[in-house]
Amino acid sequence: MYVNDPVADMLTMTYAECVDVPSSKMKLALARILKDEGYIKNFRMITDPDKPYAEIRIYLSYGNSRERVIQGLRRISKPGRRIYVKSDKLPVVMGGLGLAILSTSKGLKTSAEANKLGLGGEVLCYVW
After folding, report:
1. pLDDT tens-digit profile of 57-110?
2. 56: closest CA among 3, 101, 9, 107?
3. Which of 91, 85, 89, 107 has the alpha carbon at shortest distance from 29?
């Protein structure tokens, strides 16, 4: 299976209860941030001896009337066009109600964490 943008494939989750995506360090860090911020219930690594790669099983969060907690997301930096910001120009999503995820020199961070550490980096996506 040839994939141009595996992070975008991970972010396009369906309405299912759980989603399996091929594992990578970046996807694992992205899942950890989404869990810490309350956008997903949980995640775990799954290894299958029949498959040559491990997978991450992501359990999605839903509200009381089955509405998704993740109302929207937008991939900002793409393989064909990388978007970088300095520490003084960090993005604010939905007036502070959303989340911007950046790839920094210290790993994946939210814009709030990057602001505290004084870091800039590549803007991966917005989640709200």
Report:
1. 999 998 888 888 888 889 999 888 999 999 999 999 999 899 999 999 999 999
2. 9
3. 107
